Amino acid sequence: MKSAAIILASLLPLLIAATLIPAAEPFGFELRLGALVAAVALLPVVIGIVRGSAEPDSSPAASAPPPPPTASATACDDQVVMLLALLQERGRLIDFLMDDITAYGDDQVGAASRVVHEGCREVLQEHFSVVPMREEAEGSEVTVPVGYAADEYRLVGTINGQAPFNGRLVHRGWRTTRVKMPRLAQSGGDRLPAIAPAEVELQS
Amino acid sequence: MSGKSAIGIDLGTSNSAIAVAEGEDAPIRVVETTQILGPNRIGERETLASALYVPHPEEFPAGAFSLPWHEASGDLTVSSVAGHFAREHGALVPDRLITSAKSWLSNPHIDPHEAMLPWQSLSVAPKISPLTCSRRYLEELREGMLHALAQRDQALEVEHSQVVLTVPASFDEVARNLTLEAAQQAGWGSPLMLEEPQAAFYAWTEAVGSGWREQVGPGDVILVCDLGGGTADFSLIAIAEQEGQLRLERISVGEHILLGGDNMDLALAYTLRDQMEQAGTTIDEGQFLSLIHNASQAKASLFEDETLAEVPIALPSRGSSLFAKTVSTKLDRELLQGVILDGFFPITAIDEQPEEGDATGLSEFGLPYATDPAVSRHLARFLARSLINVQGNAELAALVGERAASGQALLPSAVLFNGGVFKAAPVRTRVLELLNHWSPNAQVRALEGYQPDLAVAKGAACYGRMRANGKGLRIKAGTARSYYIGLQSSRPAVPGFKPTIKALCVVPQGMEEGSEEVIEGQTFGLVVGKPARFRFFSSEVRSGDRPGEILGNAENTLEETSALEIALPPMQEFPQGATVPVRIESVVNELGVLELWMHHTNSERRWKVEYQVRTS
Q1: Is the dihedral of CA B256, B257, B260, B262 positive or negative?
Q2: ipTM strictly over 0.90?
Q3: pTM listed for this prediction
């Protein structure tokens, strides 16, 4: 559950980055919007997982007594919230996703997405080293080698026989060769930490 | 691994870093330091921002800024936080932020031991002295480095390593001493001091390997042009041949100029804000901060990719409504050229000197920021003063040959760029163009192998390795300035005329490490139990003055550096009120630190003179 939350949370910036990078430009706004929808759809999943683990009693499947919360579980949740906090701080991701997009024109959404793109990209580059799984151009013929890692490929279409498989590269895939997240100075409080604190300006 | 390890510390005005050379042959590497990345967030970075934030006691949760070594020492009540978070958060709470502590160390109008930062803050009490602030950065660097290494099961014995700490070439002895004091307090032992432009040169020789001798040769005069975030620092290094061996000598250093890349980013942001306001869009303080950041990124993109015509910039409001309140603008090439290249690096004449600020206006007292943003004119002034300096000394003049004979400035034959500003190739090209404009008869070239990042720290480690293992070609340097003690002229007071101050040269320019000199001919009488104060002067352009020489009018020809104070305690042979005849003895110790002593004329007894509070 926790690791799923981390993976999904990690996917968010990847998704945003993948759709906003210049390579995606020719596909125009539809793709970007599609990605936004996907990203918006993903967020509740992450939040749900985080919430689910923070409040095990609220889970409908919890007929058996929930396992006692351990210190490491809380630290793990705190760490996930930290990733959201980083993406919000630099890239305003939570603002972006929690705002109602339907009321705004493309120019406004475009301007906002620049903020998200620049900031989330900084976070991504600072804490991860993201590289494509396959270097070939999408649409070209590629070979999936013998002994490939099954988590690194998703085969679609007609799957028969044995590797090596030959096919057309639909999506190049992404992976990170490094994760360098900040550590928590302290964790394990009685509640989850803030994603973004409420900001109050005091007058002198 | 053989030989002693070396640690190079670049204590920068805006960012600090550490590089390490483990043993004689290992490559030099920048080491990350563990540091605060945010409230309750710890991680490793290659640089530590030289910024200190003093939080309100209720501002952050208890322990939000505790680092592992704070926990180890049991001191969890951290009253200030250093690093990138401090700078970013402090931008929104400026009254609690300290930056540029290093420049305060060399400010001639304040006492760096006095707790006075954040400057003019109404919220912070107690305040922090520039010295303590530098000590805090050096502590965080030391502990952060050791912790980050321990994280990877590595270790480094600071006590058994050769530590080198860099300072601007423009720092005088008082500022150098203060930096050393901060380093000693921070647990770095007694590091060697090295001028930053020299460190950049060592880093260059290390980076290009043995091939560096193919790029430079006897007769070359190299300008090290270092433009960091907040300061500009220039030096000239001459290359000569002596008995078949190359000889490098640093022949002149510049003044402390508070002008750098941060000024350029600010100038861009102000120009863009004006443009937006003319178009009817006003932005708030938070958006302006984003604008500085984004303009800097856009500048880098445009300079890097010459095919780009413009870079769009989007500025979110500080509220959560991203779609409704984000405003856009763009930085185009024309504006960038106008603000950066023509604003900071105009093609000026060699005799154009920096414009002085309006001396009659009531200017707010603070750091002496450069009033003229044109780096070109500061560079012209430096080269003109360098010529005066080498002409004062036959040995130096011989080193640079014909270059010293004529003209208005000492023009270099090659330039080594250093500092983040020069990441932009068009800026390097423009400075070369400028130097060639001044030097129509001889081509000035750029040394190949510019290192955009952290060259000073790497060069410091490289120098430390040379010193520890006695190998490599060192730059002959010695003291960058000559130093003088003020002598009150003995003549009757005339109403309306201040008596002129004569100056006794006590330290010649270029006095080398491990040497000492007793100033003959001038005896002072110190009264036991009564503190004696002397005015202390310096100059970076009087290479010809010898120890014992007396100059006529100190206030016109020299810069006042500080005061010197000495008080002899009553001793058995010298009771209270007795007058002790002394001569001045100058010592440059093995660390490159200048000490002045009062040496009893009739015995071997001597007393050390302390640098004193500088007051305006």
Answers
A1: positive
A2: no
A3: 0.85
